[in-house]
Amino acid sequence: MRVVEKLLKEQDFVAFVNIVVGAYPGRLNGTQITKEQLKKLFMQNQSNDESLHYYGLWENDKLIGGMRLHDFQMNLFSKMLPIGGVGLVAVDLLHKKEKAAKELIQHFFNIFLEKNIHFLALYPFRPDFYKKMGFGYGPKIYQYLVEPSSFPKGPTKKHLKYLTVEDQQQLVDCYNRVVAKKHGMFLKTQSELSFIFNNPDNYVIAMEQEGTVQGYIAFSFNKQSDSNFMLNNLVIKEWIYETPEALLELSTFLNSQADQVNRIEWNTQEENVHFFLEDVRNGTNHLIPSVYHASAVSGIGLMYRIINVKGFFDELLTRNFNGVTLTFKLNVMDSLLAKNNQQLIVEAVNGTIKMLESDGYDVEVTIDVAELSSLVMGVVTVQELFMLSRIQISDNQYLQALQQFFYVFEKPTCISAF
């Protein structure tokens, strides 16, 4: 018999660490010191961070897997919404291919359904695995690897200063103001703040004007050669900016590192930062036919999932859906959560929606919960899904109206790692 319960005892965490090290051998060192550090970190997180919860999967009183759950707050179209997250899903090597991971994720669903939370997110160890479990793709990330001189040099960097843990509140205030303006972003948890300031390899440079931090960069250096200690890359861990002035001063700082830094690694979800950089080429000199210069490498990561369609659409009652007037029937297919195979009649009048009990509607829409999760967040559009045969519309004359209804002017951004 299998049960999922919260990890409480020290021996439970010892067993969980052994499972984590086996599940992620490429990421974690298997030495006893590292295991002890991990155990202390996990126990400290569970005790001191109210947003973190560690759960284990037991079979016949033996721990065979576990996961870390997160309570987040996300900006959903300028409304702060609770959202559940999961990370560190790990299964004992002897119990692979026994559906243990699927069972953990199902408990993940149930735990947040009991909290009346309708929306979840995760970073997948395999996107295809979680796609089959109803998670839809989130925004892509673009990894640039450019020379420092590619960052524009502004007229000054006199407002820049180092931030330390004593300045933590200034950083949080700046970050929270950005979150309030950016759809999809999560508020920071205590563990995230600790990661920034407690890592001795990290530097934090901020642009401060009139006593207010208006932007900052957290970064570290990555050695590029064992024989040349002067050959390093600068790796941007986090770059937040409220104003063009803050962006330009921080860019000026990066530009000034040319004598010490080979290239700068910048991971961003902003699709058009190549308009900001002088030379976006990544140094490979690779050409994509006919003449497209290799620049950013893109990747799929964060994935979203609606676990209660009706509850999630209730959260959207305050949003204006682009002034559209339309009534449609929404058929949602969810192979994992039977209660989520829902049919909703959505009436929109000048962009304001409500749910109807009657069967009168203009058009019928059928979509899998994975694609719906991506669609409502604005990652993909109705027309794109239609051309890719990922959405069925009973009457194509309403395609443009549905496109406008679901269209999101600003794609979601999320820099929280978990």
Strand order of the largest sheet: 1-2-3-4-5-16-6
Q: Calculate Rg over CA atoms.
A: 23 Å
Spans of at least 5 consecutive residues with low confidence: none
Biggest sheet, open or closed, and with what strands and sense?
7 strands, mixed
As a percent range, the share of helical residues equals: 25-40%
Describe the structure in your own words.
InterPro entries: Acetyltransf_17 (IPR041380), Acetyltransferase_Eis (IPR051554), Acyl_CoA_acyltransferase (IPR016181), Eis_dom (IPR025559), GNAT_dom (IPR000182), SCP2_sterol-bd_dom_sf (IPR036527). One of its GO terms (molecular function) is acyltransferase activity. Pfam families: Acetyltransf_17, Acetyltransf_9, SCP2_2. The model has no long low-confidence stretch (mean pLDDT 95). The protein is globular, with a radius of gyration of 23 Å. By secondary structure, the chain is α+β, with helices and mostly antiparallel strands. Strand 4, helix 3 and strand 5 form a beta-alpha-beta unit. It folds into 3 domains: 116 residues, Gcn5-related N-acetyltransferase (GNAT) (Aminopeptidase), CATH 3.40.630; 158 residues, Aminopeptidase, CATH 3.40.630.30; 98 residues, SCP2 sterol-binding domain (Nonspecific Lipid-transfer Protein, Chain A), CATH 3.30.1050. Helix 1 crosses helix 2. It contains 11 helices and 21 strands. Strands 1-2-3-4-5-16-6 form a 7-stranded mixed β-sheet, with helices on both faces. It has a 7-stranded mixed β-sheet with strand order 8-9-10-11-12-7-15. It has a 5-stranded mixed β-sheet with strand order 19-18-17-20-21. The longest helix has 17 residues. Helices cover 28% and strands 32% of the residues.
